[in-house]
Amino acid sequence: MINFANPQYLYALIAIPVIAILYMLSRISRRRKLVKFGPKLRSELMPEASKYLPNLKIIIELIALALIIIAAARPFVHTENDVVISSDEETVKGIEVMICCDVSNSMLASATDDTNGISRLQRAKFILDKCLDKMTNDRVGIVVFAGDAYLQLPLTPDVYSAKMYVNDLNTEMVPLQGTAIGSAINSAMNAFDPESTFNKAIIVVTDGENFEDNAVEAAKAAADAGIQVDVIGMGTPGEGMPIPAVGSPTGFLIYDGEEVRTALDDAGAAEIAKAGKGIYLSGNSSSVVQDLETQLGKIKQTEYKKTAIPSDSTDLFPIAICIALLLLLIDVTLPYSKIKWLKKIEFFTKK
Fold this sequence. Notes:
Helix content: 25-40%
Structural class: alpha/beta
Radius of gyration: 25 Å
Strand order of the largest sheet: 6-5-4-7-8-13
Number of helices: 11
C-alpha cells in the first residue's frame, strides 16, 4: 500500500478539479461567442483549429500537476509487509545552506586548461550533487545568478528536490548576462527566515569574474549577520578559456573580431570568502567536496524533527516526478491546431 511522508501536501490536489471546472467554463463561454459567427464562417476563419487537442493538453497538464503534488507528498511503499505504516519523525541535527550558482555564459567555458574539457557549469553541478549527498539533514535552498540573481528553490529539507534543481541548472535561467555575485549573496540572505534558530551558510559557486556589484561588501554583511560565506572557484586562472557559442564560425564567442576568453579570478573569489569568514576552494580539487563538508561541519547544528521514510521502504518520488516531466514534455510538443499528418488518416469509413 502506498503511504506518504508529507500527506499535508495532498490538500493541494483540490486545485485539480477547480482548474478543470474553470477550464470547462471558459470553453463553454468561448463556444457561445463563436456561435454568433455561424458554423460556416467559423470554419472559414479557423480552418486549422482543433476541437480535441486543447482538451487533451489540459488533461495532460492536470495529470502532470497532480503527479507533482503527489511527488511533493513523498509517496513510499513499505516493502517488508503489506500493512499500512506511517512515516517516522526522527530527531536530527542540521544547518541551513543557500547555494548560489553562477549561470552566466562564462560558465560554459572549460573548467580545465583543455579547451574541449568539461564545462565549468557541468563541473559545478557534479560538485553540488555530491555535496548535497552530504547534506541529508540540512535545509537547502538554491539561488541562480548572472547579471541578476533569482531564488530558484526556497529552503527545504528535501535534498532530493534540491538535487533535481541542480541537475536542471543552465545558462538560460537568467536573461540578463553578467556576474552579480553581491546580488546573489543578498538574495540568499533574504531567503533565510530571520526567526529561524538554525545557523546558516552560503555557498557561492562561480568563476569569480564579478562585474556588477561589490561582492566583498555583501559577503561582509552576511558575516556580520552570522552567516558564513564559502566560495568554490570554477575554471583556471591565467589566459583563460574561450566561451562556446552556437552559430559562431569558430565555435566560440567572438566580440569585435576577437575571441572572448574568460579566466578564474581566484584572488577575487578568495577575497569574497575571507570577507564572509568562510573558505575558498578550487572546483578542480579532488577533495573539494570533502573540504566543504569539513568546513560546514564546524558550524553548530540545530536539533529538529524531520519526517523520514522508513528504511525498509521504497521511495516513489522519482517515479512520480519522472512521469510528470514526461507528460509536460509531451504537452509542449502538442499543438493547439490540427496535426497535418493525422488529417490524412481516415479513422472512420462509411460502408
